[in-house]
Specification:
GMP Synthetase, Chain A, domain 3, 3 strands, alpha+beta, three-stranded mixed sheet, about 45% helix, about 120 residues
Length: about 120
């Protein structure tokens, strides 16, 4: 078993092997969904699925997204939130042979790359 870097999150305390496998599966498939349907879910934005954390009962998935080439990340995230049911349906079609139930999806901005960039700028100055 391993633990995630984010200790405050109840999903990340300790993950079972099954949770890790399901999280990797969801991350891969969601990445492909965003890549293929980018114009529908987030026009003119590159969406990267950075981390997926799944609850112990596999019923809830927290999906962390990095958004590039967009000025208003919150607005883009809200557009993705509005399409959450369509994304979940597409995900269900992809994982129907691996999972019995598709977890409920919650999307969050992953600002770790922005944080790293700000630290690098501060060090250079």
């Amino acid at each position: 078993m391993s633990s995630y870097l984010y200790k405050k999150d109840k999903f990340a305390l300790m993950e079972s092997t099954r949770q890790q496998k399901v999280a990797r599966l969801l991350q891969k498939d969601l990445g492909e969904i965003f890549q293929r349907n980018a114009m529908e879910y987030a026009p003119s934005t590159m969406v990267t699925v950075t981390v997926v954390r799944i609850s112990r009962d596999l019923g809830v998935a927290k999906v962390f997204l990095s958004l590039f080439a967009t000025k208003d990340k919150e607005e883009t995230l809200s557009k993705i939130e509005k399409k959450k049911n369509e994304i979940r349906k597409e995900l269900g079609i992809r994982v129907r042979h691996q999972l019995r139930h598709v977890p409920e999806l919650f999307f969050y901005l992953d600002d770790s790359l922005d944080y790293i960039e700000n630290i690098e700028k501060a060090i250079k100055n």
